[in-house]
Amino acid sequence: MNTWRADPRQIADPFGERAPLALRRGYTLLGCAIEFRSDSAELLDLVDAAYQGLPAHQWGGLALQIELRLVEGIAPFDVEPPAARMLGGAGLCGIAMDESHVALVNAAAGRAVVQMSRALLAWPYHARYELIEFAVFTLACRAQGLVPLHAGCVGTGGAGALVVGESGAGKSTLALHAMQQGLNFLTEDASFVEPQALRVTGIANYLHLRFDALRWMDEAALRERVQAAPVIRRRSGVEKHEVDLRGGWAPLAAEPLRLEHVVFAAPEAAADDALLRPLPTDELLERLHITQAYAVGQPGWAAFVEGCSRLHGWELRRGSHPRLGAQALQVLLMA
After folding, report:
1. DSSP states of 216-264 as a string?
2. What architecture is domain 148-334?
């Protein structure tokens, strides 16, 4: 009996699914082990820049996989790459700048794929944050049933405080001064909560500081570090220093934090000895619903809200110096 075998060289692969991905990296991020597979050392360099040297936060031992594929022959961008569009359906969700720059997530399979061109490598901020980070955050969050929050988080002794506020509310400057007070940094503005246990994880790689944050820095060495940091430009046009927190100089949370406080950063000024205002439970929960429109639709939201009903809620108003707000957080967490 003859057994016919196709010549591998003659098998059509119109979607590029069989292109070898021989290069690999593995990092423990957002509670799980993520393996990155790629056909490009340059793409893995972006991964290393984002995730190398971070504390390993893990629970449950879930293993996920992200493919990073580089396409050639795309003309360089004359201006900023096009803004990404969200897409989803049939159990998939994704983001696309155009037909060559996409990220797709299949949470049920524990896998994601990111495709970008060499042209986008000239825009590493967009490549890293808008495609690779989207894949990491969305896959890890949905595969583990985490609640994604637009909030920062700092802590000490295993206890954590979420810091909720609109962009420009001063969360990053507050986090910097919290670290100077000895608190551990968990994340700047993307917190992921295990809803039943109320444990929080995040990526503690960078802090993004507006130029005017320098005027609140009393230490010359810190001011020089921030001034020497690269400048990134957000889609909104806002430019910030991207300060790398790794390397041992900043106190990073070594493990996920146990959520104990939810703090809403307010723009209103207050006397330096009266920055914190306790929130009744109904106001705490109402503010969470208002500020976390995306998280409200996620499966773990009900359990998260039920857990938050037993937490302490606070409004933190502005004092004469951000250091005073950081000291107020320190008092909360060490009480």
Report:
1. G---HHHHHHHHHS-EEE-TTS-EEEEEE-TTTTS-B-SSPEEEEEEEE
2. 3-Layer(aba) Sandwich (3.40)
